[in-house]
Write a structure and sequence with these properties.
single chain, 111 residues, mainly alpha, 5 helices, 45% helix
Length: 111
């Protein structure tokens, strides 16, 4: 028996029947996957969170922001990647805290 061909063989990610994904398909499948993580409220998460996590994790790992920007498809610079998507997992800028510690006579210990 010959296998049935997909309606859109040019697509990489498809629905279960081989058609193009739309936003509702992606959200539904994403929430279905989150059901397998009992400690999460699946209504609090969207696929967009993955983009923020990806950017933040690469940044934390030391990947230059310009390279991350290219990886997520931001053309024309890294301003949007840095301002909107990158969330600091661990504080990187400690200048203000160090200055206040000097003013009040305490020292900063590395985390």
């Amino acid at each position: 028996m010959k296998a049935k061909s997909w309606p859109r063989p040019d697509l990489v990610f498809t629905t279960g029947v081989g058609t193009e994904l739309d936003a509702a398909n992606v959200r539904r499948t994403f929430r279905r996957a989150l059901k397998k993580v009992p400690s999460l409220n699946r209504e609090d998460w969207t696929p967009r969170e993955l983009r923020h996590s990806f950017v933040s994790a690469l940044s934390e790992h030391g990947v230059p922001i310009d390279e991350i920007s290219r990886l997520v498809g931001h053309k024309g610079g890294s301003a949007v990647t840095e301002r909107v998507y990158r969330k600091q997992i661990r504080p990187v800028i400690q200048t203000g805290a160090q200055a206040m510690d000097e003013v009040f006579g305490t020292t900063v210990k590395d985390a």
